[in-house]
Structure prediction request, 368 residues.
Amino acid sequence: MSFEENIQLYGTKAAVLDYIKNSTPGIPIEPYILIPKGEPWKKYEDKIQSLGSSLVRSSSPIEGLKDKSFAGLLHTTDFYGDSSVEEVMNSVNSDVIKKYMQIHDLSSPVEMIPFFQKKSQSDWNMGMMRHPHRDNLIFISGKQAYRNKNVLYDEDSKKFYDANNYFSSLYTREESEELPEKQIQQALEYYKHIESLEKFQTGYVYNMEFGTDPLSIYQFTSFKPKQKANWENKKESYSEYPKEKLSTKKLVFGITNPEGLELKVITKNYYDRVFEQNEKAIKEETCINEQDEERPFGLGTSTTTNIDLVFPNAKAWLTYPRAGGFLAHEMFRPLQHYDISILNYMGEPKNIKIFSDGITATIIDLSE
Prediction:
């Protein structure tokens, strides 16, 4: 059966994981049980029980859309019988799914096909992704309990950098010891092998979610198309502006045109509310009204919960230093959704102009 047929039979997440395992002998993927579409999961209950402590994971053919990941919207939960399977299956009917489909003009029903996988005991939950505009950089973002780490691996220098201070700071010994660097090196080798597989030659870069201590590969998801700017963002282009009005960021996703992108910036801390609680209240707290939403605006936050659902029309996402976990679940989705994402933004201005060639971003403070 072909890879494309397996996507329709098992859903994208399960089919991709199965393709990777069968194409990569010895890869650390926890054992799993695939359930063909239309078959009752209880038919496989004995095999599921043999996994021991396990998860019931969501999988759907619609997840295969290249730039619409559904990340963090379709549920995965500990397997403890009928009610856990029902929770996963019913997640397709949630308000957040309906909102996501409305925003992206999707009308096809979301088919849910569960699969079951032995639960990983990994300590760190991480993601790694090749930069869509910089072939030599692989962005690595991880979370462990309340700790976040954002790391860049530069294939030219073969070194890890603190993503908050790229080009100015290698990780110190103390910082690097916090991360399972040897396992991350192993994960990098697996990542480079997986991205070279035939079915991933799509013109897109991919995000690999994985865990460490022990190393375990979770999934492989398309992010954005590989893209190069047809212009270069040069520092001398902004000599007419006072230095205090300029800042340069070296970790950016997305490319503007040479004329730049002028934005109003919203910086209220709405991000710790969830979409289901009160979308109207969130907009009122951030002083967003219909007139504002017709003007280009960006979001300045330190983290997010469903901001792409509350503010789908924002043109840019400006994240504050030390936010982390960008490549997992609900944090990955806004990074994929917004035209421009700038990490480690530290400004307070309410009106800015962004020039980004995907290598660096120059931000001009337009506030009086």
The chain has eleven helices and 18 strands.
